[in-house]
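Lab channel / #folding
Pinned by the channel admin:
"Please post every new chain as: sequence first, then the structure tokens as a reply. Keep commentary short and put observations after the output so the thread stays searchable."

First post following the new format, from NK:
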Amino acid sequence: RQYRFRDYRFSLIFWVVALAVLGIMVIGSAQHSSQVRQIAGLGLGLTVMLLLSFVDYQWLLNFSWIYYIAGSILLLAVLFIGENVNGATRWIQVGPLTFMPGEWTKLGLILFIAWFYGDDPARARAFLRGIAQRYETIGQVGKGGISENLITTTADALRKRELIKLRVLDNCELSAREAAEALAEATGADVVQVIGSRFVLYKPNPDEPVIELPRAK
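Reply from TO:
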């Protein structure tokens, strides 16, 4: 997915920079010699952040296994070539740069776990159930059962919302499960959940997606 510049959250960038500058000022007040390196690190970090922010993170997930392997190698490398700083061997020095592999590995591990479990249907369903808890019931199945009008209105709602919650009234001859399955078949949706008299349907809209499921590919 291509990101649009007009949707960029400049307020988030502002607060990130503000916090970083505050941290640099605090460090500079205690050890002025380290302030120049901190400013250089801030500039480099902002550049990388801005570049990556325009890259679809789903594409980045395709290389998750590389992040995992590289992070593991770097952690092992600390045991052999790590620098001892203040009694702790956690750093690796490459030329003028010194970094902690553990910090980079944290990010890689998050991406790897997201990639590893992203295509699990059970987890996708659990994700939708979690969202549906906040949804209000927008439709009901009454005495008329699964009518053409109900199918049309449900299809329209699914196209706009992708995830909807409906209720089966007491005068309906169908159970909640039967109504959910029948309406899902008529609209091409999936039954996410049936609880009591209520059920949740999901149908993705490829043209105007509303909900982004966790996925790996």
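NK: DSSP finds eight helices and seven strands in the chain.
TO: also worth noting, The first helix runs from residue 10 to 30.
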